[in-house]
Design brief:
The protein is mostly helical. It has six helices and no strands.
Length: about 190
């Protein structure tokens, strides 16, 4: 009976990891619209996976005390960051002979990973209240988001080749729309 409960808990956590990874997939599709090398795609997925470990871990450790305050703040910050990244991609896609302003390297990669993983902080707060297994949870969240980010970036890369010079504007629109979606769910 205990094995059944454990399997049921793991399945629930896996579904939650997929739900959190959907952000990474869709935002990765948008970011994949700019020209990226496979090495960059690997680093981006790995970074987002690490952030999907750190953010829910921080949320789980903080727990119930701050859950009411940071839940909305995380959504607001994530939405605003995605709006800014999307708007910059759209704006700079119309500039002639300019490389894209938003590049997923350095601070741009950190901001990108942070914007995608902020919702996992709120989920971590909730899971901390219920006493979820911390190590299993954060490893599962990180692994699933990393895989889904890679999938999104590779799909976006295919669309980038298909749409050519308009692909960055399309990717910016995806990020911008996702930012609006986050803000509307507050």
């Amino acid at each position: 009976m205990e094995a059944f409960y454990l399997l049921k808990s793991l399945f629930a956590l896996f579904l939650m990891a997929i739900a959190l990874g959907m952000d990474a997939l869709s935002v990765g599709m948008g970011m994949g619209m700019i020209p990226l090398r496979f090495k960059q795609i690997f680093k981006i997925g790995l970074t987002i996976g690490v952030f999907h470990v750190i953010m829910p871990l921080a949320g789980m450790l903080i727990g119930d005390v701050l859950s009411h305050h940071f839940g909305k703040v995380a959504l607001l910050a994530g939405g605003v960051l995605l709006l800014l990244l999307g708007a910059q991609m759209i704006f700079y896609s119309f500039q002639k002979n300019e490389s894209p302003m938003v590049r997923p390297v350095g601070i741009g990669l950190i901001l990108f990973a942070l914007s995608v993983s902020l919702d996992s902080f709120s989920v971590g707060l909730s899971l901390g209240i219920y006493g979820a297994k911390i190590v299993v949870t954060v490893i599962l969240f990180g692994f699933v988001s990393m895989i889904m980010t890679w999938m999104g970036l590779l799909i976006g890369r295919k669309f980038q080749k298909l749409f050519g010079s308009y692909s960055e504007a399309l990717g910016g629109c995806v990020l911008f729309a996702f930012g609006i979606k986050l803000l509307l769910h507050m």
